[in-house]
Design brief:
2 copies of one chain form a homodimer. Chain A contains 25 helices and 23 strands. By secondary structure, chain A is an alpha/beta fold. The first copy, chain A, has a 9-stranded mixed beta sheet, with helices on both faces. In chain A, α3 links the parallel β1 and β2. In chain A, α3 runs parallel beside α4 and α9 crosses α10. Chains A and B meet through α12 and α23 of A and α12 and α23 of B.
Chain lengths: 726, 726
């Protein structure tokens, strides 16, 4: 259940209402996971306090306001603090404490591949410290939506809801504002949130993608309680002298109250903003300022500040620790060296982590903590909050509960059920222009095959869709690897999809399916990462698809014959003739000739030597050629994890669906040698492993019979013939 | 400065006093990083409050006390909470808040290899959330001390001090107590802490190694403020029915107050315990109980509970969230499902993470967070606390500051200066019995060579000292890899030393030096991980050392000739004759024969073919043989990071120190092929890399000339001759 806008949200609301009622009876109404999603009550009874310090800058002789004292900087405001003399016998001020189980609302604008990576680090930091259910409202372009929808769907974090809003539809509302900030048009979109978010949403925390949490977001949410009746926007003071102007000659910033406010972290009272006519208000201010100012320099922030300068009663200043700004000439040290605790850091320099700052190393460490943090570990329940499980999680939990821990194949079955987090198009990617005979190379790999990528790029000039099985930390190493490689960073047509590691087995077929699902051309070449294609293969395949008129509906799988070299140093043949010469010289072999000839025997290499035209071959047991098929071909059977039988089952299914197997006479790929991977060496020797594989095969055959009836009988017969090792 | 007991502690105290005075003048005495190390004041003026709820179990009809309500369970106790009617106009209760910059004292008992790994996870979780300086008091056996001293020394976490206390000396104080608990004798040592810790230490938090923090330890420390004048021990109630007895027939637990208390997390007022004659008190109680009970079942916990039963005024009960106990039949859910926040979890089942519990997955995730957390990221400063830097850190900071970021070799120089965290003997290890001619194989590797370990163990039956360059998460993968390998887990004479990754280059010579420093035999065979030794090599080397009378003071390096196979599948020769046959057949080559014959040419393979006796060879430029040398040989030059010249420089230094180079006629090792490592492929193509390597070589030669004078001239001359590629 990733509610897409209203209809799903309504369904969710109904479900939540039900759960709320159940929760009310079970827990006496103490737990309100969903109350504020209904636009409901504020924790603490709706009596708003006010923050126990004034914003008014104390203006020293030099005319510049000084930062406030340590306590005013602190995010944690104990009752009785702030110069109030407790002997006055005031009624005790309710200390806003994080409300257990209340649903907190967060809105973030996010566009493009790189911001989609950034937002995940932000979300990880938020989830790490949070104790409350969260509803994320994401204003995204199509790229970010595609990435984040898949990510959250597969992440399945308990008590997190995500709604998407189409940023492109909002563009007209802000595109009239000339803006020089690096965030571009999307940088202005926070202004229109009150109109975009659901009308029953009362409060929301708005965040930039470049902030990192170092504390529980509920503490920030609790600051809403300090808002007076008139206050609508909570903001932290700007931690630079930007709005004083005079940073350079002709520096003319937008108007602001004192040092102004930073909009990386905002608390919005949406109800009051709507009531107060926010849209008109900011548009009027912006229009007027733009009569004398050429453009915004800091996007939405300039406009927020101009509005606040005009209507200072709108703003509730927040303690500085909730937005520690790390720009080049930041004054943030005054904040964090006196405060007992940092709450949120904000990489608000265009240089981001490369900003110069004497403490930047420590801040970077906090950021890296979450950048490299294993997101799987955030699938933690909120104890004592009766929130419904994310979509799919319930079925998954049930399926996992049905597994027998004593079963020797328990780990296999657990791995099959594992839902891996998937981050599609991890790096910027330009889909190839649509061409009727185009082919995408599809493969999967883990860290130990990264060094194959450059060679593969040299051998295959066409589009690729690659699934990478990585930890979060490895994903960052991979990112750096691509950035430092001239060959890889020059390619925009290679899509990298990160599938996050979980469990003891390499989920080979799940990985293949991820890469296959993301291929955008009509045809796919289903390869493996250890193979290098003939230099001409990409062109040749497209020509063959055209020549064989596959686009006319002919159901065929084009077989690319596979070879291997056992030599570690090796000069790649540039033609079939050269390949045959190497084969005759014993420098090359047909693939797995020594250990498992059955896997490729039906390709009929003897025929291939002489062939001038594509020729048809028949399926036989254990055949597992590398093939080119239409993108809508059957998916791989994800029950096969680890090593063994993963391709065999797929080819069997192609045959069951009556794909012709056509061998291409000029096509070839060559397998390069490598040390056995850890996964393979760990399991190959295990008898349990073999037994479990056999059990999986049997189950696969049963399913095949169910799907294809009597026609599937031949596969079972073939299986029962005596054979060699797996 | 890792103070070993008193003398160092005194020095530290003097230094701290100085810094305190500086701090006082600079910061007006607000920051007291060191005050309580001096046995000083409690934050808040020393007025102790009392926790606003009573421990006395509310006894329901079934006679078993029920857990207290949610608020009493919470770790965070806001002022005005707890049924106090604020309209009473009481003077406001001082809410104990974590004191900024106060030094917190923590004591932990730790013995053996496995506990030394556990304690690091605990410490990581503590450091992650802490905002205060910490002083760790570690009561350790020799193994743990060796490991942890190296670890903390290389970790260099700001504002963390570590003192060690010899657990073996304390054994007589507790060994008279029969104890059935799995923690053994060390499980009883918490009892003697008041006598062991420095007499001026007033307060200490005592932790078991199997607890994990989920919050700032200062919040726990702040609970000292609730102690009444009589209270000396803060404890969390036991979260099982153990002390009620009757869990099974003849279950006779030690006496306890109600459900009893768990001693995984203890607050101790050491001053009052000493005053109250604690040592006599617990010994008397234990002696008396042991008249009727055969032994303690839960080690120290039984005795603490018996004492408290007798003197209930001694205990200050702590909120349950500070010790959430995850044993098999825990009642902890009553605590954590009502509390807003967990503070500390305690894996107090002997099954540890394999304990059965419906929420164990979520708790495990918290644990795994810190198990796999990159400890380097905890080298964060405490902003605004004027604590001195850890030993070496200041010089390091200065050296790093002197580097020029614009220098093309900046990253090289930064890497050379990097102090890597080192965890020696990461896995249980039994040093080999001392033998006069014994040889340890010394090598280093990273994750991508793990699969070499089994083969290496088969080829080398003797002791090994291996440095592994890993991330924290990889170290756990490595652990599982060893545990699941029958070959590896059978070996106790292989010492694995984890050096934690940091920086872009593989610090090859630093790794070699770590492995070399930990070798315990008189001789070492300096090998590389990609080589397999002849099956007979270990025996042959020991025989040769004896025969050549190296222990008589003959200064020699025994050369083991190196070969390579380019074939991925390969049958290892069992004798020199077989090796020569393979060489003649072209299946084997002398090492790097094709790309860099100079590296091994001086070994004189032609001579070796015929040799029956060890023969002497002369050093020549670029010679880099694999050698056997005495353990006290020169260290590798750690300026060489990444690839290139790292062994060459070492051999040059051996020659400069006039080691004879003797080639052994029956010794050989063979290099197996592998894909180029990521590190090598990333840098080999870079011209900057070559330039920097040249600069490093020049600097090495200058240093050599300084050390060896005119004798080093020959190396410079050799360098200046025209040569091939690096």
């Amino acid at each position: 259940m990733l509610p897409r806008g209203r209809p799903r949200a309504l369904g969710a609301a109904a479900l939540l209402l039900l759960l709320f009622l159940i929760g009310f009876f079970l827990f006496g109404g103490d737990l309100d996971c969903e109350r504020s999603q209904q636009g409901g009550e504020w924790w603490g009874g709706g009596v708003a306090g006010s923050l126990p310090y004034s914003l008014t800058p104390r203006v020293p002789p030099d005319g510049r306001p000084r930062p406030r004292g340590a306590a005013a900087l602190d995010g944690d405001l104990p009752a009785g603090y702030g110069g109030h003399n407790s002997s006055d016998c005031d009624p005790p001020r309710p200390r806003p404490r994080p409300p257990k189980c209340e649903l907190l609302q967060v809105a973030i604008v996010c566009a493009g591949h790189n911001s989609s990576r950034d937002i995940i680090t932000l979300v990880k930091s938020m989830l790490f410290y949070r104790k409350n259910p969260l509803h994320l409202h994401l204003v995204t372009d199509a790229v970010a939506r595609n990435i984040l929808e898949t990510l959250f769907h597969t992440w399945m974090v308990p008590a997190v809801w995500v709604s998407f809003y189409n940023a492109d539809e909002l563009k007209p509302q802000v595109s009239w504002i000339p803006n020089k900030h690096y965030s571009g048009l999307y940088g202005l979109m926070k202004l229109v949130l009150p109109g975009v978010l659901p009308p029953d949403l009362v409060r929301v925390i708005v965040l930039d993608t470049d902030v990192t949490f170092a504390s529980n977001i509920a503490e920030l949410w609790a600051l809403f309680a300090y808002f007076s009746d008139k206050q609508v926007i909570g903001l932290v003071e700007n931690q630079s002298d930007w709005y004083f102007g005079n940073l350079w000659r002709n520096h003319r910033p937008w108007p602001a109250l004192g040092r102004g406010f930073n909009t990386g972290v905002i608390l919005l009272r949406l109800d009051r903003l709507r009531q107060a006519g926010w849209e008109q208000m900011w548009k009027m201010t912006a229009t007027r300022e733009l009569l004398t100012l050429p453009a915004t320099s800091l996007a939405d922030q300039d406009i927020f500040n101009a509005v606040i300068k005009e209507h200072p009663w709108l703003v509730q200043p927040l303690p500085c620790v909730w937005n520690v700004q790390l720009s080049d000439h930041t004054l943030a040290e005054r904040c964090y060296s006196e405060a007992s605790d940092l709450k949120v850091i904000h990489w608000n320099s265009p240089k981001k982590l490369r900003v110069k700052n004497k403490h930047v190393e420590s801040f970077r460490n906090l950021y890296l903590t979450f950048l490299e943090y294993d997101g799987n570990l955030l699938r933690r329940e909120l104890f004592g909050c009766p929130c419904p499980l994310p979509p799919g999680a319930k079925q998954l939990q049930r399926a996992l509960a049905r597994l027998d821990e004593e079963d020797a194949c328990f780990e296999f079955r657990q791995q099959q059920l594992t839902v891996h987090r998937v981050h599609i198009t991890f790096l910027p990617h330009k889909p190839p222009p649509s061409q009727p005979h185009d082919v995408t190379l599809v493969a999967q790999l883990s860290m130990d095959r990264l060094q194959m990528l450059e060679a593969l790029c040299r051998h295959w000039p066409g589009p690729m869709s690659l699934a990478l099985y990585l930890t979060d930390a490895e994903a960052q190493q991979f990112l750096r690897f691509v950035e430092t490689s001239a060959v890889l960073s020059a390619r925009q047509d290679v899509a990298y999809h990160v599938v996050y590691r979980e469990g003891p087995f390499y989920p080979i077929n799940q990985l293949r399916n991820v890469a296959l699902a993301q291929a955008l051309t009509p045809y796919v070449f289903l390869s493996d990462i250890d193979f290098l294609p003939a230099y001409s293969l990409y062109d040749y395949l497209r020509a063959s698809i055209k020549q064989l008129e596959l686009d006319g509906g002919r159901k065929a799988a084009l077989v690319v014959p596979a070879f291997e070299t056992l030599h570690y140093r090796f000069s790649f043949p540039t033609s079939k003739a050269e390949l045959l010469a190497l084969l005759d010289a014993g420098s090359l072999h047909t693939f797995r000739y020594h250990e498992w000839p059955r896997g490729h025997a039906p390709t009929d290499y003897a025929h291939w030597r002489e062939a001038q035209e594509p020729y048809r071959v028949q399926w036989a047991a254990d055949y597992e050629p590398y093939v080119v098929v239409p993108r809508d071909c059957p998916r791989y059977d994800s029950r096969f994890v680890g090593f063994g039988w993963n391709k065999v089952a797929h080819i069997m299914e192609l045959d069951a669906q009556e794909y012709e197997l056509l061998v291409l006479p000029e096509a070839f790929i060559i397998h390069l040698p490598h040390a056995p991977s850890l996964d393979i060496s760990r399991f190959r020797s295990s008898p349990t492993y073999r037994d479990c594989l056999q059990a999986l095969k049997d189950e696969f055959h049963q399913d095949l019979s169910r799907s294809y009836g009597a026609a599937a009988l031949k596969y079972l017969t073939a299986l029962q013939q005596p054979r060699g090792p797996v």
